[in-house]
Design a protein that fits this description.
By secondary structure, this protein is of the alpha/beta class. The protein has three domains: 183 residues, P-loop containing nucleotide triphosphate hydrolases (Rossmann fold); 139 residues, no CATH class; 141 residues, no CATH class. Helix content is 47%, strand content 8%. The protein has 23 helices and eight strands. It has a five-stranded parallel β-sheet with strand order 2-3-4-1-5, sandwiched between helices. Helix 10 crosses helix 11. The longest helix has 20 residues. The structure holds adenosine-5'-triphosphate (ATP) and magnesium ion. Adenosine-5'-triphosphate binds next to helix 3 and helix 11. InterPro entries: AAA_16, ORC5, ORC5_C, ORC5_lid, P-loop_NTPase.
């Protein structure tokens, strides 16, 4: 079997065009991999932060140099057991991908390293050309047992096939290296991009109808605003895609010209702030964000959520409604996140603070609906409360009452859909809520028994939190019945 040669100069040039800022890494990889028939180093380790182009570049180079039966790519996130790893490698190297001819069935079944080795030996033309096995997210290999990786590194010796193992990881080699020792790899580092390279990468997606200079000045602003906290190419691309239409908006309604970049930036500032609030954490998807800031044209009062605003591409190019973005920001303030059970603890605390204790049995006893008490009984309680407090919503006005922790826990266990066991974690979550000042301890700090607390959150916030866990707090608050 002979292997065709590859024009490495051309390949280098096309890789440089496709992946600006990665010329040194591409050069290094091409030097190590060489021509398909060349013998390569047995072990390469490629590492760098997220979105630095590791996967894209390695896959591009391998696909350009080798045909698919000589290089296998394994994502260790998808192939999370040794069996999946073996079978995926064999499917790729043996070219037994599910196909129409084979009835979309794959016939490779391989459970152990011994079987894998014997399958490898039987591959067509196995002994003539080197093979390449790429493990992406390679840090996950460490979960497959201490001998898995060392065995793979000896695969060439065990199968008599020259094989190069390429690991791609976000973990540097010094932290990756197993304790029991392993051969040293050749390292290829993918450093984080600087401003110049980031701009070149982002400029690849410049819309065909926009002047490159104008687009670059926008990207430069985006980079300056966001790069302190976020240098991730994927995130920056996402932000650029969302904000560019807003940045251009004043051009279309005549409020600014292309040359007035600072003015355009000033007009778009609200959206930059809203995007920073909402999109760093990807609390909402880009489609949701666009729906929020979507502009309704005059006469358009249909709630047209079914059409995808991203697809249409024109949906946010109307007049800006700045209050929308501001409203988004205000909403964000209520949108901090807590663990799932902690949210229920906070809800239980709110209920304990705002409901009369003697109604707990009626509201929260298991098997009883909150509406199970008679209408007369409900009216009597309301009447009594009104005479005591001078008005129905009085408790909301008076503020929270203290409650014993045991009462709050009783409410907590009754409102949970799936029961959990009382554990140390619940106690530590209560302590965290106190630290966050969402619960305020009202009993003496030296008192360890009979601790009392107050809930320190507003109705608006608790309603928001309850909605996030699909709990209808209105049905359990005395003020609302
Ligand atoms: N130099 C570059 N030129 C063009 N696009 C790039 C460059 N670097 C990264 N990208 C793009 O960034 C995105 C993320 O790249 P990729 O998935 O290869 O990164 P990664 O280092 O493998 O990230 P992770 O560690 O999260 O897997 C891809 O869309 C890729 O095309
Ligand atoms: Mg990757």
């Amino acid at each position: 079997m002979t292997a065709s040669t590859v024009n490495l100069t051309l390949l280098r040039r096309s890789a440089a065009q496709r992946f600006p800022g990665r010329e040194p890494q591409v050069d290094q990889l091409l030097r190590y991999l060489g021509q398909p028939a060349d013998t390569s180093p047995p072990f390469l380790f490629i590492y760098g932060h997220e979105s630095t182009g590791k996967t894209s570049i390695v896959r591009f180079i391998l696909s350009e140099i080798f045909d698919s039966t000589h290089a296998a790519y394994i994502s260790c996130v998808e192939c999370y057991t040794p069996r999946l790893v073996f079978e995926h490698i064999l499917k790729q190297l043996g070219d037994s991908h599910p196909s129409f001819e084979t009835g979309f069935l794959s016939n490779v079944k391989c459970d152990s390293m011994q079987e894998f080795i014997s399958f490898m030996r039987r591959l067509d033309g196995a002994h003539q050309l080197p093979r390449y096995i790429v493990f992406d997210n390679a840090e996950k290999l460490r979960d497959m047992g201490p001998t898995f990786l060392p065995a793979f590194l000896r695969i060439a010796e065990l199968t008599d096939i020259p094989t190069t193992i390429i690991l791609i990881s976000c973990v540097p080699w010094d932290k990756f290296r197993p304790r029991n020792g392993i051969q040293e790899p050749l390292l290829v580092r993918f450093p984080i991009y600087g401003k110049e390279d980031t701009m070149k990468i982002l400029a690849l997606k410049c819309p065909s109808d926009e002047p490159l200079d104008f687009y670059l000045s926008f990207i430069s602003v985006v980079y300056d605003v966001f790069s302190r906290n976020c240098k991730d190419i994927n995130e920056l691309r996402h932000l650029v895609a969302l904000l560019f239409p807003k940045f251009c908006e004043p051009l279309f309604d005549g409020r600014a010209k292309r040359s007035e970049v600072p003015k355009l930036f000033r007009l778009c500032q609200t959206y930059f702030a809203a995007a920073a609030d909402k999109l760093y954490l990807r609390e909402i998807s880009s489609a949701e964000w666009l729906r929020h800031i979507r502009v309704r044209r005059p006469g358009d009062d249909s709630d047209d959520n079914s059409s995808d605003p991203e697809d249409s591409g024109t949906s946010i190019l109307g007049n800006p409604i700045e209050s929308d973005a501001l409203h988004l920001r205000i909403k964000t303030k209520l949108d901090f996140d807590l663990p799932y059970y902690t949210k229920f603890l906070l809800i239980a605390s709110f209920l304990a603070s705002y409901n009369p204790a003697r109604l707990d049995v009626r509201f929260f006893s298991k098997g009883k609906e909150s509406t199970s008490y008679s209408k007369r009984g409900k009216q009597a309680i309301q009447k009594q409360m009104m005479s005591n407090t001078g008005g129905k919503h009085r408790q909301q006005l008076l503020g929270p009452k203290s409650f014993p922790i045991e009462r709050m826990l009783a409410i907590f266990y009754s409102i949970l859909v799936d029961p959990i066991e009382n554990s140390i974690e619940i106690q530590s979550q209560i302590a965290s809520l106190v630290t966050l000042r969402l619960l305020v301890r009202t009993s003496n700090a030296s008192q360890l028994d009979g601790i009392k607390c107050k809930c320190n959150v507003s109705y608006e916030l608790i309603r928001h939190i309850s909605h996030s866990v699909q709990f209808e707090i209105e049905n359990y608050l005395f003020d609302f019945i």
